[in-house]
Design a protein that fits this description.
260 residues; 15% strand; disordered C terminus; 47% helix; Rossmann fold; globular
Length: 260
C-alpha cells in the first residue's frame, strides 16, 4: 500500500482529492490547520468507503508545525509516497489596499508552506526511488487575476518550484507536476465573486461564466480525478507539467468583469 499526504484535506478540493486517492487503495493522511470537525468528517467519509487514512493538525506556514507533522508521519508510517500540496489561502484586495501582512501570509502559506512540506517529506521518495509530488496552483498563477496579486504571485511561484524540482527529481523516478484549477464551486471561489460584486461589479460570476466556452465552472471531482491519475503508475512519463482544469476558462484569459 502506498501512503499519501494531502495538505488542506479537510474540505473543498483537498477533501475531494483525499477521497479519490483513498478509494484507490492509498492510505491517505490529511492535514488541517484549524477545522478539526471538517477534517474528522473527511476522515469518516474515507473510512465509510472502506478507505484507510489519518489526520493531523499542522499550520504549513509554520516550519515547526511541519517538522512535527513530518516526524509523526515518519515515525508512524515510515514516510509518504505521494504528496499533494493543496493547502492555501487567498484574500481579495485592490493592490493599493494590499497590506504587507496579507502579502506575506499568502506567500508564506501558498508557496513557502509547500516548500516546507516537500523539503521535509521528500526523503522517503528519494530513498525508494519512486514518488509523486503534485502542487495545486491556479490559473491565476498563469494568467493573473484581478485583485488577487499576492495569491497569483504565490501560485506562480509554485509553478517555478515544481518545474525546477521535476528536473532534479527525475533521476529518482519522482514526478513533479502542477494542477491549475480555474474558479471551482467552492467557498473560496464564491467569496471572490461576492467580493467583486461588493466593490461595484455587477453579476461578476455570471459575466465570468459568459467568457467560458462551456459556460460553467470546473468541479472538485474533475480536479481530484486528474490528481489521482498523476499520482498513479500510469503517469510515470508526465513530469514538470502544468495542467489546467477550468472548463475552458483559460482559452479566453484576461479581465472578464464588467462594471455597471
Amino acid at each position: 500500500m502506498r501512503f499519501a499526504l494531502v495538505t488542506g484535506g479537510d474540505r473543498g478540493i483537498g477533501r475531494a482529492i483525499a477521497l479519490r486517492l483513498s478509494s484507490q487503495n492509498i492510505f491517505t493522511i490529511i492535514s488541517y490547520r484549524k477545522r478539526e470537525d471538517e477534517a474528522k468528517s473527511t476522515l469518516d467519509l474515507i473510512k465509510s468507503r472502506n478507505g484507510k487514512g489519518d489526520m493531523i493538525k499542522a499550520d504549513i506556514s509554520n516550519k515547526e508545525d511541519v517538522e512535527k507533522m513530518a516526524d509523526y508521519i515518519r515515525d508512524k508510517y515510515g514516510g509518504i509516497d505521494i504528496l499533494v500540496n493543496n493547502a492555501g489561502v487567498g484574500f481579495s484586495s485592490k493592490f493599493a489596499d494590499l497590506t504587507y501582512d496579507s502579502w506575506f501570509k499568502q506567500i508564506q502559506t501558498n508557496l513557502t508552506g509547500s516548500f516546507y512540506v516537500t523539503k521535509l517529506l521528500i526523503d522517503n521518495m528519494m530513498n525508494k526511488k519512486w514518488g509523486r509530488i503534485i502542487f495545486i496552483s491556479s490559473i491565476a498563477g498563469i494568467y493573473g487575476a484581478e485583485y488577487l496579486t499576492a495569491y497569483s504571485a504565490a501560485k506562480a511561484g509554485l509553478i517555478g518550484l515544481a518545474k525546477s524540482l521535476a528536473i532534479e527529481m527525475a533521476k529518482y523516478n519522482i514526478t513533479v507536476n502542477v494542477v491549475a484549477p480555474g474558479f471551482i464551486e467552492t467557498k473560496l471561489g464564491k467569496s471572490y465573486f461576492e467580493w467583486l460584486d461588493s466593490i461595484g461589479y455587477k453579476d461578476s460570476e455570471k459575466n465570468y461564466l459568459s467568457f467560458i466556452p462551456s459556460n460553467r465552472l470546473a468541479s472538485e471531482d474533475e480536479v481530484s480525478s486528474l490528481v489521482s491519475f498523476l499520482a498513479s503508475e500510469e503517469a510515470s512519463g508526465i513530469t514538470g507539467q502544468v495542467i489546467t482544469v477550468d472548463a475552458g476558462a483559460s482559452l479566453t484569459p484576461g479581465s472578464v468583469y464588467k462594471r455597471e
